[in-house]
Amino acid sequence: MKFLHTADWHIGRRLHGFDLSDEQQNAFDQIEQIAQQEQVDGIIIAGDLYDRRLPAETSVAMVDEMLQKLNLTDHLPIYAISGNHDSATRLATGTPWFKATNLYLHTDLSQAFKPVEVGDTQLFLCPYFEPFDAQQYFNDKSLQHLDQAFARVVTEMKQQFDPAKKHVLVAHFFAAGSSTTDSETNLTVGGLAAVPTDLLADFDYVALGHLHVKDALQLPTARYSGSPVKFSLSEASQKKGVWLVDTDQTPVQLTFKAITPIHDVKQITGRFADLMATADDDNVNHEDYVGVTLTDRQPIPNVMARLRDVFPRIVTLGRTDGFEPQVGYQGESSQQIQQKSPMTLLGDFYEEVAKEPLSPQQEKWATAALKTAREEGEQA
């Protein structure tokens, strides 16, 4: 069997205020083209279809259209799971009839233990979960940390192994020893939230999501697909794409297929005058998203606005001495910000600082606090 492995679409993501929907649609179109050209038997999506648990209506519509295009129009089976940025409840809507079109979308830990049988392969679709979920499923409060919980999960999966078939795990977590970039949610606290890679040894292939760089983990039979779009300047030098996984080979054969962006993400360093002089240089793509580091020592009046005339998608501006005259281009007007709900503003602020979305429990606390504040304000 041949599968296309992708993950971390993060539909709805922005880059320092810039809307990335065109980039994401472009990446999707290339994923679809690769799947058709390679005549894959199915598409694996290893979590984080959305960028946040409460996606905007436009993001929901975009994901729905993408899944329908692959599954209903192209008749490609889909094997997907929810990630830590997804709302498992929202993604699960429609699950009862998904299987009728070979769309398997697992959002609950209990679904991980019944493999999807595809030709010579068993696919175990394990959505993102917390230790508490494992405690509830196994009725075992001793499963305090993710490594303990995941060991128990793998043991349970192995009881379902058909020795005559290949075994593929689809999961969304941080594997011990992986490298990260600053656009990814930090799940590690003292190493307790990392999954030891030796727990993956009994699978013929492990299709991972969560880390955005394909080379974050380089095991022969376990890989991150990486995100199909660059989401931060720390990913500027990375190649984005998807893995083709052929389970007919032993060991499985992996082939990386690159995705070409509409607008690349780049870091550029130089003197202000030299950068401005590139305005008429056809060899410089001025439409790329750029982080600019100036080597000038003297102050430059209205520097960000002047640079933006040449590089309209400038996202950060700093200097080699560490001083940052202006950092970031938020891309939203004060009017747009004022139109956002308090919960949306709080979620945006929290994610900007913590590099991860509010958890469902935090959302409940924040909603309750805002309700109390609103009621007190009405009574005043």
From TrEMBL:
GO molecular function, one term: endonuclease activity
GO term, biological process aspect, one: DNA replication
All residue ranges annotated as the Calcineurin-like phosphoesterase domain in the record: 1-213
Keywords, in A-Z order: DNA recombination, DNA replication, Endonuclease, Exonuclease, Hydrolase, Nuclease
Pfam family, any one: Metallophos
Domain spans labelled Nuclease SbcCD subunit D C-terminal: 263-353
SUPFAM superfamilies to which the protein is assigned, alphabetical: Metallo-dependent phosphatases
InterPro entries: Calcineurin-like_PHP, DNA_Repair-Maintenance_Comp, Metallo-depent_PP-like, Mre11_N, SbcD, SbcD_C
UniProt similarity note: Belongs to the SbcD family.
Described function: SbcCD cleaves DNA hairpin structures. These structures can inhibit DNA replication and are intermediates in certain DNA recombination reactions. The complex acts as a 3'->5' double strand exonuclease that can open hairpins. It also has a 5' single-strand endonuclease activity.
Assembly and oligomerization: Heterodimer of SbcC and SbcD.
Protein name as it appears in the record: Nuclease SbcCD subunit D
Organism for this UniProt entry: Secundilactobacillus mixtipabuli
